[in-house]
Amino acid sequence: xxxxxxxxxxxxxxxxxxxxxxxxxxxxxxxxxxxxxxxxxxxxxxxxxxxxxxxxxxxxxxxxxxxxxxxxxxxxxxxxxxxxxxxxxxxxxxxxxxxxxxxxxxxxxxxxxxxxxxxxxxxxxxxxxxxxxxxxxxxxxxxxxxxxxxxxxxxxxxxxxxxxxxxxxxxxxxxxxxxxxxxxxxxxxxxxxxxxxxxxxxxxxxxxxxxxxxxxxxxxxxxxxxxxxxxxxxxxxxxxxxxxxx
Length: 246
Hints:
about 250 residues, four-stranded antiparallel sheet
């Protein structure tokens, strides 16, 4: 688990400029510290809890904007922690963090009111990206970056208007194609595995067949690489990356 030293997305703050508050709950101190470090790197204010009881206490006192919540805790489990937070009227977005990886476990967590689900081991960069997504959808934050455009060479993607163009040519993409391209463009010159792409773009809503990644990469190539020299590249046996034409 490593923190990418080049932030792939803008930092978030509250409209008044105050820091986003995150509560990290995990009974492994080293893991809780690692996640907290990554979130502080984002400029967020972070508190940690090693037990369910402490998580409920901090949830009430700290009033976090987002919670990273381990399901398996030494006293009350994460599902009960979430139930108590919801009973207090707190609709804070919750991302479950657990070693369990079966579909049934994911369904249970999401049915209980969780907003997202990440299994151990995980990428810190991916965890942070998902948390950004949760707080963005909560409409509680503003971005420090006034420019919503991602640029790789002559390819431009606008994250607010959902417009994509290469050079002077507008490109029409489906919602899934857009999310896949956005993920690639947030990580230029970086090889992303099929597993990473599946987890980021399709998340828990998809069964996990890696062939779907190949299909959608093909769709993007037909719409982007036909407008000029190829930008989307396959690294055989590893994954895919996008890079500007040199």
